[in-house]
């Protein structure tokens, strides 16, 4: 078996908060328990929201928590040619199609079914249309992709101190998901699958809000002939109102905690992660 390799992969589109801290610290604890290596990967495919100074802030916040990582640190913005080649490979197999629909148009045309994130399932408006001249996304033709992947799709879930379990993946519940955005030749789903394989990631530890996305990732792994890591989806850190912490809600950043004099040890204690 390959030596255990894990990764913590934040996006530099805002400052890290306690939810990120918990995921990073849990990744470090699991890597230690598995006698493995924890990598840092910067997921900066969004050219509008990701900024270099926020990448520096991420590294600074993680160092404050006592976490260091092997070099070099991968940045997805440097791997666009890899994503573009993978997209072209899917296109050559007839597994993706261009889409010019806006969110408003999808909302108006879609029926009642929704994907696991609660968004309307794409009704297939652009399927079969020629490639347009203007900006367009690329969607996976999920039915055709599943036809090329006979047999059950599944992955192994793990948790500390518990036996591993096999879970069946159901990519069809995502419909024809976006595989490449209008502004970049990839999406989170495509980039994370290619990068996990390229970095030899054997165990993925991430929030429960990404658990359903694993179904789609397993399908992409099968299409590209890539290994499927083991997955652990941890509970989310929530605020007093019960909402998960997020940058969009302007949850208190680690930087603000530092300015208030909160120590890394206090953060670990609050999150239930033991000090080392």
Q: What would you note in describing this structure?
A:
- This protein has 276 residues and is α/β, with parallel strands linked by helices.
- It has one domain: 3-Layer(aba) Sandwich (Rossmann fold).
- Helix content is 33%, strand content 15%.
- It has helices at 18-33, 52-64, 80-92, 103-109, 142-147, 188-198, 213-224, 254-259, 264-271, and strands spanning 5-8, 37-42, 74-75, 96-99, 137-140, 154-157, 165-168, 178-180, 203-207, 230-234.
- The strands form 4 sheets. It has a 3-stranded parallel sheet with strand order 1-2-3. Strands 4-5-8 form a 3-stranded antiparallel sheet. Strands 6-7 form a two-stranded antiparallel ribbon.
- Helix 6 crosses helix 7.
- The longest helix has 16 residues, at 18-33.
- The model has no long low-confidence stretch (mean pLDDT 94).
- InterPro entries: aa-tRNA-synth_I_CS, Glu/Gln-tRNA-synth, Glu/Gln-tRNA-synth_Ib_cat-dom, GluQ/Sye, Rossmann-like_a/b/a_fold.
- Pfam families: tRNA-synt_1c (PF00749).
- Its EC number is 6.1.1.-.
- Keywords: Aminoacyl-tRNA synthetase, ATP-binding, Ligase, Metal-binding, Nucleotide-binding, Protein biosynthesis, Zinc.
The CATH class is Alpha Beta
Q: Note the overall shape.
A: globular
Instruction: Catalogue the unreliable spans.
Output: none
Calculate the mean pLDDT score and round it. Answer: 94
Strand residues, percent: 5-15%
Which structural class should the secondary elements be placed in? alpha/beta
User: Total helix count?
Assistant: 9
Whole-number total of structural domains: 1
Biggest sheet strand order reads 1-2-3
Distance between the termini: 28 Å
What CATH calls the topology is: Rossmann fold
Q: Specify the CATH homologous superfamily.
A: HUPs
Order of helices and strands: EHEHEHEHEHEEEHEHEHH
Q: Kindly state the number of beta strands.
A: 10
- The appropriate CATH architecture is 3-Layer(aba) Sandwich
Measured as a percent range, the helix fraction is: 25-40%
State Rg.
Answer: 19 Å
Major β-sheet profile:
3 strands, parallel
